[in-house]
Structure formats: structure tokens, C-alpha cells
């Protein structure tokens, strides 16, 4: 049996981040944890996947849900868990009046690209020519202190 739970902050049960990072994320990110009844023991449920997301705004298209991280345990991929998480995120986006959901995928991650495209995702890098840039903290500090 698979079940999901939406977790809003404050939170201290996610093992993938240290406590100081969790405090920094307070009221910014939301987590959806997908769990499954652990049939091999009496320990209850096991987390088998998660989504980390937040809401943002684009002046051209309006409010959107940004999927920051999405993960399903390797041995359970292809079992429908990712589809359930994605369905739940879609329901959240529609309920919150988002115009779309955005996310990044590494070019080498062909299985994920296929997963998203089967669900109607558009590849903006090829369709609209968008490129992703970043400015590291070193350069941020440099620009912030320039006179």
C-alpha cells in the first residue's frame, strides 16, 4: 500500500538535510513524501520517494509551481510511485491556481526526460532556446561589495 503526505514546516524528520539547512528553508519549500507499507517488518511505513517544491511567479505566465527535487528509490522506479507523486503535485498546482510546473533535468538523464515528456512536459531549452546560468557565491560577494 502506497500513501503520500504533504509536510509543511517546521520539520525535523527529513534525513537528507542537516538541521541548519532545514531552518534556512523554513516557510520556503514544501515537501511531499511518498511512503509505502513495509511488508517485510513491523516497522510501519518506509519513505520511497519525495518531491521538494515551492511557488514562484513569472511576470509573463503568472504563478507556477517549481519542482526543485524529485526522487524515487531506484528499486521502485517504474512501479507507479513517481506517477503518483507527479499526480499529487499536479493537483496542488491546479488547486493553487498555477499556470504551470517548472523543473530542471540533466541532459544525461534520459529516463527522467522520457518520464516527464510522457506527462506532457515541454523542453524549453530546445523549444524556446532558454539557457540556465548561475553566479557562485564568490562572484555574488564580489559584485555586492563593488563601489
Automatic annotation (TrEMBL):
User: According to its UniProt record, in which pathway does this protein act?
Assistant: Amine and polyamine degradation; putrescine degradation; N-acetylputrescine from putrescine: step 1/1
Give the GO biological process terms. Answer: spermidine acetylation
Q: Which GO terms describe its cellular component?
A: cytoplasm
Swiss-Prot/TrEMBL keywords: Acyltransferase, Cytoplasm, Transferase
Q: Where in the cell is it found?
A: Cytoplasm
Q: Does the keyword Membrane apply?
A: no
Where is this protein chiefly located? cytoplasm
Q: Which domain of life is it from?
A: Eukaryota
Pfam families reported for this sequence = Acetyltransf_1
EC number(s): the record gives 2.3.1.57
Task: Give the matching SUPFAM superfamilies.
Answer: Acyl-CoA N-acyltransferases (Nat)
Catalyses which reaction(s): an alkane-alpha,omega-diamine + acetyl-CoA = an N-acetylalkane-alpha,omega-diamine + CoA + H(+); spermine + acetyl-CoA = N(1)-acetylspermine + CoA + H(+); spermidine + acetyl-CoA = N(1)-acetylspermidine + CoA + H(+)
- Which protein family is it in? Belongs to the acetyltransferase family.
Q: Which PANTHER family match?
A: DIAMINE ACETYLTRANSFERASE 1, DIAMINE N-ACETYLTRANSFERASE
Q: How does it assemble?
A: Homodimer.
State the protein's name: Diamine acetyltransferase 1
Provide the species name. Answer: Pyxicephalus adspersus (African bullfrog)
Amino acid at each position: 500500500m502506497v500513501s503520500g503526505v504533504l509536510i509543511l514546516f517546521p520539520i525535523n524528520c527529513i534525513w537528507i538535510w542537516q538541521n541548519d539547512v532545514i531552518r534556512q528553508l523554513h516557510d520556503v519549500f514544501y515537501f511531499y513524501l511518498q511512503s509505502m507499507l513495509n511488508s517485510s517488518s513491523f516497522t510501519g511505513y518506509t519513505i520511497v520517494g519525495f518531491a521538494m517544491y515551492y511557488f514562484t511567479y513569472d511576470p509573463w505566465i503568472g504563478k507556477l509551481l517549481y519542482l526543485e527535487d524529485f526522487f524515487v528509490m531506484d528499486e521502485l522506479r517504474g512501479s507507479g510511485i513517481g506517477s503518483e507523486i507527479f499526480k499529487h503535485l499536479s493537483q496542488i498546482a491546479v488547486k493553487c491556481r498555477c499556470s504551470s510546473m517548472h523543473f530542471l533535468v540533466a541532459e544525461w538523464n534520459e529516463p527522467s526526460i522520457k518520464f516527464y515528456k510522457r506527462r506532457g512536459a515541454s523542453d524549453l531549452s530546445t523549444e524556446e532556446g532558454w539557457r540556465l546560468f548561475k553566479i557562485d557565491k564568490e562572484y555574488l560577494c564580489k559584485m555586492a561589495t563593488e563601489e
